[in-house]
Structure formats: structure tokens, C-alpha cells
């Protein structure tokens, strides 16, 4: 489960995805509840993508924004039926979350240590996701939010190293460039190839612990039927 990542810079998103450079600010690292850039199909322009700001963590119209702390990842096995996600899935509200890298905890030392995972060729990561809209956010303006899709990764040569011992291993759905437009248009939602674990030899992982003075205390997340 990914709860921390580095969003791609806006100029890098524009260059890699061939979209107009967006004009908004966001934090250097994203945690649930933070704003970050996503790519979605441009409204009324089939085949074209746009880069827009959205909250990391799905917030349906009926929920408080605090729900983002629990809905930042969506399991592909249940995304179509869980209350927080099913509306976006049904409406083909698919997005790409552009990232320089993601972070996952390793317990190999007996304690959780943050590791940075990036593309071995230093290419941007394109994380498959879903987005939602609600008429008003914290500032009274309409709010977009998103969740990253995850798949089982038990036995994966790299992802098997992360998360607590004994827990199911999960990893994000990472898209190939050839899948970008098809994913945003909803044409690949039933294609098994999209949900295959990303090859371990195309990823690089490096220990990158947070400095003690900036370490964020993680709140206990209790699974509910909402996610």
C-alpha cells in the first residue's frame, strides 16, 4: 500500500505525456490528504488528456475529506463494489498519477525503514488510478480526489521485501506508455495485461529514511467496509 510518493514536476509531466503545462502548486512529497497532479481525459475532448490538481485519497460527495486518510489505495479485486470507489469505477473515471518515485516501508531491520522505489531507467512512473468529484472542498470550491489501484504482489522479487512480515504483499498498478490513452478512455479496464505486476528488474529500490525531525507519525488505519 503506497501512502507516500514524489509527484512528477509539471514540466516533466508536460514533456512525457504531451499535455499542456499546468499552472498550480503542490507539495514536493504527497501523503493522504495532500494535493497532487493527476492526468485524466479532458472534458469533452476524447483522446486528449489534461493535468489537474486533486487530493490524494478518494473523497466521494457524501464523505468528509478526512476519509482521504483511508482511501488512498483501492484494491483491484474490490474497487468495483466498495462504496468509496464504485461510483468512479462505474463512470470510467480513470486517471494516471505521475510520480518520480514511490515510498514503501521495509521491516528487514526489525523496524520500519522508508525505501524509495523508482524506474530503473529513470523514467517517470505512471500509476493507474481512479478519480472522483465533489461540489465543495475545504475552501468551498469543487474538489477532485483520487486513489491508486493496487494488485497482489506475493512472491514479487522486489515488493516482497516491503510491509510488515506476514501481511499480504501489494503493489501499485504501473502503466506502460502504450497503455496511457487506453486507460484514461476506459478501454483497458478488463485487459489482464494491465494488471500484471511490474517487472522487478525495471525498478530500483534504495533506503531513504525520513530525517527524525521531519518524520510524520502515522495514524493507525482501521479497515472498514468503505475501502
Automatic annotation (TrEMBL):
<keyword id="KW-0238">DNA-binding</keyword>
<dbReference type="GO" id="GO:0106300">
    <property type="term" value="P:protein-DNA covalent cross-linking repair"/>
</dbReference>
<dbReference type="GO" id="GO:0006508">
    <property type="term" value="P:proteolysis"/>
</dbReference>
<keyword id="KW-0645">Protease</keyword>
<comment type="similarity">
    <text>Belongs to the SOS response-associated peptidase family.</text>
</comment>
<keyword id="KW-0227">DNA damage</keyword>
<dbReference type="InterPro" id="IPR036590">
    <property type="entry name" value="SRAP-like"/>
</dbReference>
<dbReference type="InterPro" id="IPR003738">
    <property type="entry name" value="SRAP"/>
</dbReference>
<protein>
    <recommendedName>
        <fullName>Abasic site processing protein</fullName>
        <ecNumber>3.4.-.-</ecNumber>
    </recommendedName>
</protein>
<dbReference type="GO" id="GO:0016829">
    <property type="term" value="F:lyase activity"/>
</dbReference>
<keyword id="KW-0378">Hydrolase</keyword>
<dbReference type="GO" id="GO:0003697">
    <property type="term" value="F:single-stranded DNA binding"/>
</dbReference>
<keyword id="KW-0190">Covalent protein-DNA linkage</keyword>
<keyword id="KW-0456">Lyase</keyword>
<dbReference type="GO" id="GO:0008233">
    <property type="term" value="F:peptidase activity"/>
</dbReference>
<dbReference type="Pfam" id="PF02586">
    <property type="entry name" value="SRAP"/>
</dbReference>
Amino acid at each position: 500500500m503506497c501512502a507516500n510518493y514524489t509527484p512528477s514536476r509539471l514540466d516533466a509531466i508536460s514533456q512525457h505525456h504531451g499535455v499542456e503545462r499546468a499552472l498550480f502548486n503542490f507539495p514536493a512529497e504527497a501523503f493522504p490528504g495532500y494535493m497532487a497532479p493527476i492526468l485524466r481525459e479532458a472534458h469533452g475532448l476524447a483522446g486528449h488528456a489534461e493535468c489537474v490538481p486533486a487530493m490524494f485519497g478518494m473523497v466521494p460527495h457524501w464523505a468528509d475529506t478526512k476519509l482521504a486518510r483511508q482511501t488512498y489505495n483501492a484494491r483491484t479485486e474490490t474497487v468495483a463494489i466498495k462504496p468509496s470507489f464504485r461510483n468512479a469505477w462505474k463512470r470510467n473515471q480513470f486517471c494516471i498519477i505521475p510520480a518520480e518515485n514511490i515510498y514503501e516501508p521495509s521491516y528487514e531491520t526489525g523496524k520500519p525503514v522508508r525505501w524509495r522505489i523508482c524506474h530503473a531507467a529513470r523514467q517517470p512512473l505512471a500509476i493507474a488510478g481512479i478519480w472522483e468529484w465533489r461540489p465543495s472542498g475545504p475552501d468551498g470550491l469543487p474538489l477532485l480526489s483520487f486513489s491508486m489501484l493496487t494488485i497482489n504482489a506475493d512472491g514479487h522479487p522486489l515488493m516482497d521485501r516491503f510491509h510488515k512480515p506476514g501481511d499480504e504483499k501489494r503493489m501499485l498498478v504501473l502503466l506502460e506508455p502504450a497503455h496511457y490513452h487506453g486507460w484514461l478512455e476506459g478501454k483497458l479496464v478488463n485487459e489482464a495485461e494491465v494488471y500484471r505486476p511490474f517487472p522487478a528488474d525495471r525498478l530500483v529500490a534504495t533506503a531513504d529514511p525520513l530525517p527524525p525531525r521531519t518524520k510524520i507519525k502515522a495514524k493507525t488505519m482501521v479497515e472498514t467496509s468503505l475501502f
